[in-house]
Amino acid sequence: MNSYGKFAQNAWKTLSPSKYELIVDPEAWFTSLGKEAENSVDSLQVQIAGHDTPGETYLQKVGRLNNAKMQAEEIVRAEILTPPPEDQEDEPEEEEPSSMSLHLAFVKEMRELQWEADEELNRLEMEDGL
């Protein structure tokens, strides 16, 4: 099972435990779902990244491709790997955050940091071009 399948399995266990219990063969189901998610990320990443732009530097391209992959993964996690809202169960209040909520907070923070880094890189390039 790939990382997408593991993410989905943890998400379903955490957000929809009663629906998770209804899955006859979780290992096979989440392995298949993980492969589907991987294919979706690959194709969506290409669409989001678009074509190389004239004059694009190596670092700009790496930033654009990394950003596209992170956006694609975020979309796939929300649309494919996480149980639909109607299947999600209210979590009892916990004193400590769950590993899923910590992971989601980490993903959000990494996306914000990537965006800030891209903005800073663009700002520096604009200053160098002036």
UniProtKB/TrEMBL annotation:
<protein>
    <recommendedName>
        <fullName>TnpV protein</fullName>
    </recommendedName>
</protein>
<feature type="compositionally biased region" description="Acidic residues">
    <location>
        <begin position="86"/>
        <end position="97"/>
    </location>
</feature>
<feature type="region of interest" description="Disordered">
    <location>
        <begin position="77"/>
        <end position="101"/>
    </location>
</feature>
